[in-house]
User: Fold Permease IIC component from Lacticaseibacillus manihotivorans DSM 13343 = JCM 12514.
Amino acid sequence: MENKKQSGFSKVLNESVFPAIMKFVNTKAITALKDGIVYSMPFIIIGSIFLILNNIPIPAVSAAITASGWGAIFNQAYTASFAIMSVWAAVGIAYVYARNEKVEALPAGLTSLATFILIQSLSIANPLVAAMGKTGTGVSNAAGKVVWTGTQLANYIDKAPKAVQAFMSQDVTGVINLTWLGGQGMIGAIVVGLLVGWTYTAMMKRGWQIKLPEQVPANVAGQFSAMIPAGIILTVAMVVYGLLSKFANTNAMQLIYTWLQTPLQGVSDSLGGALIIAFMVPFFWFFGVHGGMIMGAITGGLLIPNTADNAALTAAHKLTLANGAHIVTNEFYNNFINLTGSGITIGLVIFTLFFAKSVQLKSIGKIEAVPAIFNINEPFLFGLPLVMNPWLAVPFFLTPVVVALTTYLVIWSGIVPPLNGVAAPWTTPPIVSGFLIGGWKMAVWQAIVLVESALIYFPFAKKYDSYLLAEEAKNAAEEVKA
Assistant:
């Protein structure tokens, strides 16, 4: 009866639920989002190196780097790579969308970039305003030492003529605001990238382009072909910017951030959000569907901005939950929920190497031992297998949930600091990745997570091993009789 129920449940999932999910994941928009946002990853990882150099977790070394002026140089490199991740996303998403539609892709990506910049307010608040007064930040030197307090600065400014004071306190115009180029602009970049990719390819496919004679070189003709779609898109973006600026005193990036990104990031950064993500990855895998790919595509656009926000706080030496640091980031997903592979199967590796008695578990354990160090566990997923294996379903589902719960709580309670925004590649070995993304305390916690996995998997793996051992003995006896 139980098998029939399980069979019926599996049939519903495989025939109704999963096809609908996969249809959604494989839509043009989600494919462009998933593959386009990857273009930002090299810059995020490279920028993470400079972020680490500017925030060495040894106070004396960190102070020496800051005093030498190299801290500002490292921060410049971080800003030009990691801190403008939304630029790479805006270009990459539109590029992939056009490429998949067999349209010349680079002009679409560049049009997306121009649109992304156009809908922003090209100004920043005057730094003097924030620096002046009793609560002002004052003026600091390259080493971060305040050389003029906010009160002193205000007293000097007050002595200048009114016209000069007004000029010095005006917003700085004619600049690109870095705020929207980083994590805060990610959802805006996704929206722009998808809309530009879709409209650009639609116009190109309908022939809305300037066609030059065959004698004109292809590289020149291609640029003229892009003029009409790009011109229409930028004109529409200009009208949107103008209307919002004139009648609402805001811009599209601010609206997207307030109405869309902030609520979604709040959900993704909650305990409930972390537990759902942790459960859904092995749930999909159990039925043979790539849970990491599905959940990565769905959550990446939210968790990567969380990472960027934490990186910005780290760069400013203000990484605390009180200052708005996130608990659940893309590194929480990669280096905890998927530590040593989906299902956090390191506990199963330990059992197969040191405690298993069946030939099947011992053999597959030797194959998986090295890949597990680099967070790859396909040999277990399909070779053990974990897919559709009721013996190991409970620890496979439970371990990521327990790890997500306990990791969330130790960060929330202050036992370990928030993740610092460093983007360690997902193949970075455990403990090493913990140190990179959160210092020695996070490395220690990652080691504890490995122990959690071992404790949860052990009793279930032992029962499964006993079952396999009995089956192997039975098969051996039948072979002898034959």
